Amino acid sequence: MNQPHTEFSEFHWLVEVLQTVDIGIVVLDMEYNITAWNSFIENNSGVDSADALGRNIFDVFDDLSEQWFKHKAETVTQLRNRAFTTWEQRPYVFKFKNTRPVTGVTDYMYQNTTFIPVANSAGDVENLAIIVYDVTDTATSKIELGEVNDQLALMSRTDGLTQMLNRGYWEDLLAKEFLRQQRNPREHSLIMLDIDHFKNINDTYGHQVGDDVIRAVAKVILDNLRATDFSGRYGGEEFSLVLIDSDQQNSFQLAERLRKKIEQTAVPLPDGEVFVTVSLGVAGWKPEMSEYAQWIEQADQALYESKRNGRNRTSLAP
Ligand SMILES: Nc1nc2c(ncn2[C@@H]2O[C@H](COP(=O)(O)OP(=O)(O)OP(=O)(O)O)[C@@H](O)[C@H]2O)c(=O)[nH]1
């Protein structure tokens, strides 16, 4: 005698809960017409439940991908299995505005969603429920963390003063290129370049001007290499370059071009300008080299020969 009343109050209580929870609930029939629409969906879509009920979901959300949605829904109802989508696979199913204070990361609510087949008492699937979780906070912090990590990765590869590769990363690239050379040799060359009497620049004009000189030399190098070449700041006023598909003789010519351009590059001073010269050493790759350090060593020896012979010149490794 009490049974119907209990069931009714339980139902009422359940509906109350569904209206209050902080997740979205949409229920559709097999023709994709809306049969339930809770307050969360109402508030975020701006469509009242009274207006939504009975309407087709694709009319209410005209940017909902019909093909994708139907495929998902059919899989769920035919297999009688739940299915999930995460914001990483698809940022949102229903396009709701992001209600958070401006994050700069997203204009829309990131959502995880669950598709649930709903069977009647006879066991036939007659409805499809879609549960929507607002995961904007998690998603934005994960995206921001990813951006910070990218930034850190870039910083860990780059020299702060010149924006060239730093020595560690340049050597990593050299090590990889060296391994490729051992398998499939080509005519690559390595150049070491050092600013002449740089200590005098610092001592005469101060470290600020010294830094400007280093930046100016780096710019000439970067502006004159091919996209496939790679250069790094090897030490304070020393730079290292790998020229791809350039034999020792061609690389000597490029080194001379760099040397002359740097010699003609004026670095501004508060009251005038200063010019510097550089010394260079060029070493082509040789099959007898068993490790990349020997390649650097050969270019270094050629560089020191340039220094010994009076600087502002290029020497070739023997
Ligand atoms: N301003 C500035 N100076 C630096 C930096 N890194 C290294 N140095 C200076 O570079 C100078 C290098 O001097 P040395 O190794 O004696 O060589 P050099 O004076 O160039 O003489 P040679 O190479 O023989 O022609 C030192 O005084 C270092 O303090 C930097 O990032 N900025």
TrEMBL record:
CDD domains: GGDEF, PAS. Its cofactor is Mg(2+). Residues 10-61 form the PAS domain. GO terms for cellular component: plasma membrane. It comes from the Bacteria. SUPFAM superfamilies: Nucleotide cyclase, PYP-like sensor domain (PAS domain). One of its GO terms (molecular function) is diguanylate cyclase activity. InterPro entries: Diguanylate_Cyclase, GGDEF_dom, Nucleotide_cyclase, PAS, PAS-like_dom_sf, PAS_4, Rev_trsase/Diguanyl_cyclase. It is an enzyme of class 2 (transferase). Residues 186-318 form the GGDEF domain. One of its GO terms (biological process) is negative regulation of bacterial-type flagellum-dependent cell motility. Pfam families: GGDEF, PAS_4. It catalyses: 2 GTP = 3',3'-c-di-GMP + 2 diphosphate. Its EC number is 2.7.7.65. PANTHER family: DIGUANYLATE CYCLASE DGCM-RELATED, REGULATORY COMPONENTS OF SENSORY TRANSDUCTION SYSTEM. This is diguanylate cyclase.
